[in-house]
Amino acid sequence: MIARTDRCRHDCPPGVMSEVRVRFAPSPTGYLHIGGVRTALFNWLWARRHGGSFILRIEDTDVDRNLRESTSVILESMRWLGLDWDEGPEVGGPHGPYFQSERLELYRAYAERLVATGHAFRCYATREEVEAARAAHEARGGRDFRFVSPWRDGRRPPPHSDAPYAIRLRAPRTGSTGFVDLVKGRIDVPNEQQQDFVLLRQNGLPLYNFACVVDDVEMGITLVARGDDHVVNTPPQLLLYEALGRTPPRFAHLPMILGQDGKKLSKRDGAVSTTEYRDAGYLPDALLNYLARLGWSHGDQEVFRRDELVALFDWSRVGATAARWDPKKLAYIQAEHLRALSDARIAELAMPFLERAGLRPDRRTLEAAVATVRTRAVTLVDVADMVDFYFREPPRIDEQAAARFLVESTRAAREELAALLETVEPFDAATLEARVHQWLQQTGRSLKQVAQPARVALTGRTASPGLFEVMAVLGKERTVARLRAADPRPSQLTSTGG
RNA sequence: GGCCCCAUCGUCUAGUGGUCAGGACAUCGGCCUCUCACGCCGGUAACAGGGGUUCGAAUCCCCUUGGGGUCGCCA
Predict the structure, then answer these.
(1) Pure H helices in A50-171
(2) What is residue A6's predicted lDDT score, i.e. its pLDDT?
(3) Between A429-443 and A467-474, two packed helices, what is the crossing angle to 10 degrees?
(4) Is the pLDDT assigned to residue A65 strictly greater than 60?
(5) Which nucleotide lies nearest residue A321, CA to C1'?
(6) Are A387 and A373 in contact (CB under 8 A)?
């Protein structure tokens, strides 16, 4: 206890805030949704800021769609993001197991206890009967169906001794249930809106609202931060806490992340799955920075390091408005984070992408190459792509660029330049620039005339880092060779039909 | 439809009764320049509408409109 209090190195009141226990509870859908990442992030930040515990729990009480496989994708994504958990799958913890599908006896015990205390009851209605009641209700134009079980109050006996039953909560019909949300403020819902929702299905599996509360109670969760879509789940859950005689945690409901069209975020807005951003060469810290700024702010600051986020994050700065996903702004934040990295670090991170392209550059050259593209690239994929020509022999030459610049009329200049370069020593950018300018002056040519043909010969493209930097990284031998090899492409010589 | 939530530039936001309503992304000009970027300078651009409260409202209250969420033996 004392040790835990000491671990809170911030200005929080002793005792209460020092026991921060938060959780992220995804269901195994096969991938980690980018919106879920923000929820996870805010929970994680809160735990880390206060030296508390961040718990990962897998909500797989439904069907068989879960699979270890889709869980591992989520864990992998969390690890890539650097959102480490103190308790959960693979790391264990004192409140495990952390898969709901492995906690079934616990839910049953809680449910039976609620039946015993009169807070819940066994409902023998079949699924068909409930569906029929719903259909009848809707036929009458009703939209807000609430099943009223004949077993709720009366002494009605079970159909027969071993009849299957679901366990339902005996919810209050009057009054209201409310709470103070950390981002939305006071929220109250009339209890008429509540219903005797199912805790345990006939097959013994718990439903979300029930399992969630049991686990949050068992795991000692002090603050539940989750998506906006769960605000309607909170009042029923509050009923459960009351029935259980436990004080509920605090709640913080984060506004949704919408697509650019204001609708639900979908593939049309770019990637929705975390691994896609990883594969597209985004940096975890950049993604997290962008996500944090979606709904949270700290004055005018836009770019945050991870440790700054941890130090600064607070619920009072979380906005209540839904935000739209903006790939352009993400790209900006990503570029900022990339540029904050050293050449060596970028080289290290880009290496897998280079290898994916079949290149295995030596580290020193790669770092030098990275230095020339770092202000031009946004993602690591960009880095790999922009640096490609340094390491591919021969370089890939863009056909249109060749057709325009690697033509007879520029040949003489290219050859003269090659001859000149052969004599330059040392072969560094400053020296190269000085000698080339000297040569230009002597020959009466302009850099504008010579630069593009040389650039295409050297890099295969019309856009590239500065010419002299490129030459220096390439080295004398390859620079000269590429200038000389870059005669009109064969395809062009034959393009007239010869 | 019931219930709940939300509402400042195109977008993310600052603003907590008195500001020329600020910043950032995007966008549009310009500078730099061997291309493309980076960088720098500058511009366009917002308090959804209507009522109140107040000496004074982006800020407080109500209504309207618009948007979102949710109404399962899914999570």
Answers:
(1) 67-81, 104-116, 127-139
(2) 34
(3) 120
(4) no
(5) B6
(6) yes
Residue A140 above 90 pLDDT?
A: no
Question: Are residues A294 and A254 in contact, defined by beta-carbon separation less than 8 angstroms?
Answer: no
Listed in sequence order, the residues at least 6 apart from A240 whose beta carbon sits closer than 8 Å to its beta carbon are A169, A209, A210, A213
> How far, in Å, is the CA of A262 from the C1' of nucleotide B5?
16
pLDDT in tens, A318-358: 999 999 999 999 999 999 999 999 999 999 999 999 999 99
Tokens for A1, please give them: 């206890």
The yes-or-no answer on residue A329 being catalytic is no
Residue type, A215: D
- Distance in angstroms (rounded) separating the CA atoms of residues A345 and A370: 10
Distance in angstroms (rounded) separating the CA atoms of residues A169 and A214: 14
CA atoms in the 13 A half-sphere facing the CB of A17: 12
Phi, psi of A47 (to 5 degrees): -65, -45
The nucleotide lying nearest A450 (C-alpha to C1') is B34
**Residue A205 CA distance to nucleotide B72 C1' (Å):** 14
Residue A160: CB atoms within 10 Å: 7
Contacts of A394 (CB under 8 A, 6+ apart): A482, A485
Percent of the residues in chain A that have a pLDDT greater than 70, as a whole number? 93
The β-bridge relationship of strands A185-190 and A198-200 is unpaired
Q: Are A414 and A451 in contact (CB under 8 A)?
A: no
Tokens 């607070």 locate to A314
Other CB atoms within 10 Å distance of the CB of residue A272: 21
Bridge partners of residue A176, in order along the sequence: A190
The active-site residue out of A184, A267, A328, A329 is A267
